[in-house]
Design brief:
Layout lengths: L1 H28 L9 E2 L16 E3 L8 E5 L2 E7 L2 E23 L21 E9 L5 H6 L2 H7 L7 E12 L7 E3 L7 E9 L3 E23 L6 E11 L4
Parallel strand pairs: 7-9
Antiparallel strand pairs: 1-11, 2-5, 3-4, 4-11, 5-10, 5-11, 6-7, 6-10, 8-9
């Protein structure tokens, strides 16, 4: 009888332990889920009269004709005429990004010269490169800045002086057939520019860049590069939607 009472005395403890273990299972299974909120990026140009300076800003490259930029209710329009340029959108603070969704349309694509592959030195034009500027500790020294490509210099200027840049990841819309590489470290970027073919198109029409990153990245700025200066191409890109961390 004493033995039975001893057993009953510990039964509530066993039950309580079992309840705690069962309750903990779903918590553990969701611990690794990404909880960043979906961010919709406005498709408007930076207004100098706005004190917050929120919006997309055109960055011109030296000795290269700039793209023509316009914005209306239909989206962000980028006209390429043997030209190039970069649009940048800076965040007020570091933003965690694990996936992106970019939608839009193109009226044409860069014309890749015969015998060349898209991404080669004389054919390094893509209809759109959507970039994430990932913060880090690397900064351009005086000597590095002297030899760095203009794109690297401009990207470094987007990051606050107290921070550095680890790299910029560009997600490209490629022609069909696409380059043999699906990912690469750009030869002119000193390791700071990485590229990835996110989608492939054969001709004019709608496009979608939808990419899930291997890991969440701390992002300080976004950028869009459309170029036709190497291939002397003419086309138009309209961006109609940009989402960071879109819900599946």
């Amino acid at each position: 009888m004493e033995e039975r009472n001893h057993t009953f005395r510990f039964t509530p403890l066993f039950v309580l332990t079992a309840i705690i273990l069962v309750a903990a299972v779903p918590l553990r299974s969701h611990a690794g889920e990404r909880k960043e909120k979906t961010i919709r990026i406005p498709l408007k140009l930076c207004d100098k009269s706005d004190g917050r300076r929120q919006g997309w800003k055109l960055v011109r490259f030296e000795n290269i004709p700039p793209n023509k930029i316009a914005c209306d209710k239909d989206g962000l329009h980028i006209q390429v005429q043997s030209s190039a340029g970069m649009l940048t959108y800076c965040f007020a603070q570091e933003t965690q990004v694990h996936s992106i969704l970019v939608r839009g349309s193109v009226t044409g694509l860069p014309v890749i010269p015969e015998g060349q592959m898209q991404g080669d030195k004389k054919a390094d034009d893509f209809a759109i490169r959507f970039g994430l500027v990932v913060s880090g500790t690397r900064k351009l020294g005086r000597m590095e800045r002297f030899f760095a490509s203009e794109l690297v210099k401009r990207l470094s200027e987007l990051v606050p002086k107290s921070q550095g840049i680890d790299h910029a990841l560009f997600l490209n819309l490629a022609n069909d057939p696409p380059p043999k590489w699906r990912r690469r470290i750009h030869p002119l970027g000193k390791g700071r520019i990485r590229e990835r073919v996110a989608s492939v198109k054969k001709g004019p029409g709608d496009f979608e860049l939808k990419v899930e990153l291997e890991e969440t990245c701390p992002v300080f700025a976004l950028c869009i590069v459309c170029d036709g200066d190497h291939t002397k191409s003419k086309y138009r890109v309209t961006v109609t939607e940009i989402q960071l961390n879109p819900k599946t």
